[in-house]
Amino acid sequence: MFETSKDVLNLSIAFSVVLVAAFFSWMLYYIIAMLRDTRAMVTDVRKKMEAIENAVQSVRHRVEGILPGFSVLVTGVKEVISYVMEKRRDRADDDRDDEDRPRKKK
Known about the structure:
Blueprint: H1 5-100
């Protein structure tokens, strides 16, 4: 079968080429699998980012719709608080005036 050493060399070279080709095929398969998984992951991230963006836009539109009414509410609350504080101040002044007056004995 092997008549010369050149036949053995050619056979070993052919075997080495087959092994290298198998290794590169195996490596190429795993690189393609990793790229496919990466693509799927990027697609999922994009979908989730779009969902988050839609939620933020929805909240933003709702808040923008509420803000005009909210300013009126804040103004009303300020008026009520100032009215209550004024009444408390008047009541405190009246109480102080009552304490300054001499009490009548019965």
